[in-house]
Structure formats: C-alpha cells, structure tokens
Amino acid sequence: MKKTMISLLAVALLGTSAAFAQEQDPADLPEKPTGLQPWTLRVHYARDNKDYEGWGVYAWKGPRNGAPKWPGNWRFNRKDGYGVFYDVALGEGATMMEFLITDGKGNKNCPNDQKLELSSNLAHKGQEVWIRQGECKLYSARPKG
Questions:
Q1: DSSP string over 59-113
Q2: Which of 24, 93, 119, 144 is the 20 to 30 A CA-CA neighbour of 5?
Q3: One digit per residue, pLDDT tens: the chain, 145 residues?
Q4: CA atoms of 68 and 85, how far apart (whole Å)
Q5: pTM (2 decimals)?
Q6: Would you say 43 and 85 are in contact if contact means Cβ atoms under 8 Å apart?
Q7: How far from the centroid of its chain's Cα atoms is residue 8's Cα?
Q8: Which among 122, 41, 47, 106 is positioned nearest to 79, based on CA atoms?
Q9: What are the boundaries of the signal sequence (predicted)?
C-alpha cells in the first residue's frame, strides 16, 4: 500500500511539472538564448510597444519544412534582451531565405518580401538576423538603441 501511494505521488508530481513546462508563456521564458543549431536561422524582432501578440515569421524559401499556410506564421516563441525570436530550421544546403514578419492576419512589418543570403558557416553554427518594427532593413548584428 505504501509503495503504491509513493508511486502515485511520483507520477502526479511528474505530470504536474510536465504540464507546467508545456503551458509556460513565452514571456516567462529565460532571457538568455540557447546556442544555435546548425542549419538554423534565429530571427530576432523588436516592437516599440512590446506587443508581440500574433507576430511571427512567414517563410517560403529556405525552411526545412516549407511555409506555414498563409496568413499564418511561426509565432515568436522566445524572448531575449532585444525583443522576441524564433529559430527557423533550414533545409541543408539552403543559401537564401525569403520571408516576411507578419501578425498572422496578413499584415506585414515590411511591405516588401524580404530575402536574406545565408552564411557559409550556417552548417556549423547557424545564423542570426535582427529586425525592427516598421523597418525593412535586416541587421546581421544586434542594432544599438
């Protein structure tokens, strides 16, 4: 009886911690980004008002698994000191990614399709790009200010 109760308690505790991990809000995630995986593009995005509801990456050339269904996107799911970010898994051998930052309803951060030439080191250490609200410029390093 005692062993059964201990086993049930252990299962309940494991289930609670697993549920907590799945329900954790991206805003509560740690600010220190994890290292980049090979063939990954980390897309950072900053909005002045810090309202990221619905915003994410829509990409059609370069991602390993193809594009999300328009007007959907891959929602930014992590945060850092700059704003939010999403890691796009790229197809091996990818040399370019074409994409938009959207609100998931078809509204775009930049009215133009964006193209990013991918680094030759992508296969070894991934790549990062930084984007600001309302700008079409792609930064290869975190912009100041």
A1: EEESBTT-PPPTT--EE--EE-SSSEEEEEEBPTT--EEEEEEE-SSS-BSSSS-
A2: 24
A3: 544 444 433 333 334 333 323 334 555 544 555 789 999 999 999 999 999 999 999 999 999 999 999 999 999 999 999 999 999 999 999 999 999 999 999 999 999 999 999 999 999 999 999 999 999 999 999 998 7
A4: 17
A5: 0.78
A6: yes
A7: 37
A8: 47
A9: 1-21
CA distance 59 to 128: 15
**Is the preceding omega at residue 38 within 30 degrees of 0, hence cis?**
no
Domain coordinates in residue numbering, the chain: 29-132
In the block, tokens 């309803």 appear at 105
Encoding tokens for residue 32?
A: 């220190």
Cβ of 86: how many Cβ atoms within 10 Å?
21
